[in-house]
From TrEMBL:
It comes from the Bacteria. This is Class I SAM-dependent methyltransferase. InterPro entries: Methyltransf_11, Methyltransf_Superfamily, SAM-dependent_MTases_sf. The lineage of its organism: Bacteria, Pseudomonadati, Pseudomonadota, Alphaproteobacteria, Acetobacterales. Pfam families: Methyltransf_11. Keywords: Methyltransferase, Transferase. The keyword Acetylation does not apply. One of its GO terms (biological process) is methylation.
Length: 238
């Protein structure tokens, strides 16, 4: 397992080269799902923690819902985010070692972090301890059956990678969370039959004929790039 300094170096470089520069449709759709869940809570006084916030690209969109804390291993990137988004609090460091207290938040958001931690069950236990009774986890992670069928470069030094499928994710969540929603979003692929089923041209034609119904059908069938999960902390999570 890479040491913390190696991981920190990788994520500082990755966030600088990617999330500080651009976002793709995968990120936009994850944001849309999370903001929809937050709007459904119908509150503007939430304490929210954005775990693995990277460049803070989502953090600033969480501010209308309450007080927001962003945390990430990428200390250099977080320092720039703190300057750019002074309304939020940013705490750099290893999430598993940082002290945020217990039962300090109403909502924890975590996008594409789970697959990059060594102890996934321990990570989710840690998130659960941060949440108040009835608190919500809003999580996105890579959908293993789809990513395995795409051209993905091998992990770089300092990059941990362990993708999961929907069944595996549910099993990881259920000890700590009541799973309220779990589904895939953003169908895409660049190899084999999935490349045809998830092609941009086919999706565009389908939207012209039937709106987004065809794309939503593929997402319900598990063909999305991302698994989205909404969970509520179990009373026994502490």
């Amino acid at each position: 397992m890479p040491d913390t300094a190696l991981q920190q170096g990788f994520w500082n470089r990755w966030n600088t080269e990617t999330r500080e520069q651009r976002r793709d449709e995968v990120s936009w759709r994850q944001q849309r799902e999370v903001l929809g869940w937050l709007q459904a809570l119908d509150r503007r006084d939430l304490d929210i923690i954005d775990v693995g916030c990277g460049a803070g690209w989502l953090t600033e969109h969480l501010l209308p819902f309450g007080r927001v804390t962003g945390t990430d291993l990428s200390d250099q990137v977080l320092a720039r985010a703190a300057t750019r988004i002074p309304q939020a609090r940013f705490v750099p460091g290893d999430f598993m070692a940082l002290d945020f207290g217990e039962a300090a938040f109403d909502v924890a958001v975590s996008l594409e972090v789970l697959s990059h931690v060594a102890d996934q069950q321990g990570f989710l236990r840690r998130v659960a301890r941060l949440l108040r009774p009835g608190g919500h986890l809003m999580l996105a992670t890579q959908n293993r059956p789809i990513l395995e069928r795409n051209r993905i470069p091998p992990p770089e030094p300092g990059q941990l990678r362990r993708w999961v499928d929907r069944r595996e994710l549910r099993a990881l969540l259920e000890p700590e969370f009541e799973v309220l929603r779990i589904h895939t979003v953003t169908p895409r692929a660049d190899r084999g039959l999935l490349r045809i089923a998830n092609s941009y041209k086919l999706n565009r034609m389908a939207r012209l004929v039937a709106g987004d119904g065809f794309e939503r059908l593929k997402e319900r069938c598990g063909l999305g790039w991302t698994i989205m999960a909404l969970g509520r902390r179990r009373p026994s999570a502490h």
